[in-house]
Design goal:
alpha+beta, Ubiquitin-like (UB roll), 3 domains, five-stranded mixed β-sheet, two-stranded antiparallel sheet, 7 strands, 14% strand, binds iron/sulfur cluster, binds FE2/S2 (inorganic) cluster
Length: 221
């Protein structure tokens, strides 16, 4: 067992646990984007970063790939952590303003301005789809190609690979494709529509089914 301190509270956990998992065991929620339980951690988005304090110095580390260590001191919500997370979400939103996951995260973090040039790339390179396809579906039909700004997720020769099982998992798990923001009127890259208190549209014969109702209304059976 390893003993560490997270946000001032001591915890004992098994060796090999990550700081993200240890914090989760204590009920501390650290925001994540490229992490998904059951898939290997990738450490790409850096949204899950925490402050690691050692010898009166501290560094920022991605908690999803950081193994627990004896005597470790972790801060999950310090001012430095919050500031760094906000910057990262701002950067990600600038490259994917239509991601509802990112818009919600920005609202929760109180982000009210994107200081970067908005350029919709449609992918934050989190690698969830690639890992899902390979590790969960044992398919490996998709992967990363290119480097730097040309890096993207693709299939070989841009055609549906033979290995693809048409499970739809790569879209389902994607924080950009599956949960696209439909607000359509982003102001400086920010939406915040989900957080406003405008009355929710309901069907004329609403039975309170709690299904979300879009512009066209949902199907009434
Ligand atoms: S739909 Fe095809 S490419 Fe996508 S995760 Fe499933 S097997 Fe992989
Ligand atoms: S397509 Fe989606 S899941 Fe795949 S790397 Fe890009 S953002 Fe992540
Ligand atoms: S969730 Fe840890 S780096 Fe993305």
């Amino acid at each position: 067992m390893v003993e560490l301190t997270i946000d001032g509270t001591k915890i004992r956990t098994v060796e090999g646990t990550t700081v993200l998992e240890a914090a989760g065991e204590m009920g501390i929620v650290i925001p994540t984007l490229c992490y998904y339980p059951g898939l290997s951690p990738y450490g790409a988005c850096r949204v899950c970063m925490v402050e690691v304090v050692k010898n009166n110095r501290s560094s920022l580390e991605a908690s999803c790939t950081l193994p627990v260590e004896q005597g470790q001191v972790i801060l999950t919500n310090s001012e430095r952590v919050r500031k760094a997370r906000k910057l990262i979400v701002e950067l990600l939103l600038a490259s994917c303003p239509n991601s509802k996951t990112l818009q919600d995260m920005a609202s929760n973090m109180g982000i009210n301005k994107i200081r970067f040039k908005i350029k919709d790339r449609g992918c934050i390179l989190c690698g969830l789809c690639v890992r899902y396809c390979k590790e969960q579906m044992q398919s490996g039909g998709i992967g990363f190609i290119g480097r730097g700004t040309s890096r993207k997720v693709s299939t070989a020769f841009d055609v549906t690979p033979e290995e693809c099982r048409n499970c739809g998992g790569c879209e389902w798990i994607c924080p950009v494709c599956e949960r696209a923001c439909t607000a359509g009127n982003l102001i400086d890259g920010l939406c915040g529509g989900c957080q406003n208190l405008a009355p929710v549209e309901t069907c004329p014969i609403c039975t309170g089914c709690s299904e979300s109702v879009g512009m066209q209304g949902h199907k009434v059976y």
